[in-house]
Amino acid sequence: MKVDVHTHILPKHLPRFKEKYGYGGFIHLEHQADCRARLLRDDGTSFREIDSKCWDPKERLADCDHYGVDLQVLSTMPVMFSYWARPDDALDLSRFLNDHLASVIDAHSARFSALGTVSLQSPQLAVKELERCVKSLRFAGVQIGTHVNEWNLDEPELFPFFEAASELNAAIFVHPWDMMGEARMPKYCLPWLVGMPAETSLAICSLIFGAVLDRLPRLRICFAHGGGAFPGTIGRIEQGFLTRPDLCAVENKVNPRDYVKRIYVDSLVHDRDVFKLLLDLFGPEHIALGSDYPFPLGEKEPGKLIESMTELDVKSKERLLSGTAKEWLGR
Asked: Strand, coil or helix: what is 214?
């Protein structure tokens, strides 16, 4: 069995949010021939080209059947978070996206699960929509960004949201977005290659050093792209904690390494040696299959890297391909 926790979807048609809300900054969709479309910024510049796999459940299911994926966990594209928007507008946008997700799930409940989106710039509204996602729409949880404007994830303003997620037994998937240093990385796709891994490590370190994970031991949280740069820098992170507690251990006295078995990461690292590092650090019990379907930087054949690891026994592969995901999702 394969459960893919990291896949993205959009509605086939997006409203012109600039016209709806009266100000710009939003993304809209312009359909073209051959089942393709462009995601455009309000100024007309292109954000990304996508194809119908991004909105057509039938095409997704055909790919799932071809690659043996039993369940896809759907979430919106992170560019849609819109944390910079007015809170009420962001709530309205998130409800639109979540209602679309619910319609897809209702039509194909055996093959799709969902992670909603919430307006984290207003934690109070985010909790309200989180409750709707879990209680009314029956989602497994929500996807959030690695930061919320100027807030890192340890900001006190965000703690009530994480507290509510823990109380609701909701899964949280953290995906990088709005990457740091993007202005210095205009070429070579570097925001995605360098900025994203750094963003994810920042999010993990913020939750550890800020004692959020310590205060909420039941919080089920998973980080995209194998935890980004965190696994490769855990030694440096721990060394900072040990040698400069005056700077690092100001809110949490627990060694950062002690938290690697408290969090989950997806398997999307593309490299056998890096995946071995994940296995050594987290163990199969904390790594879930994630492909980033349907985007080019994802794993084209979901689970291929896991299946290629001849040193793993059948039980470990089953855990990586589905068991960890089901545990994290609460299924």
From this structure: helix
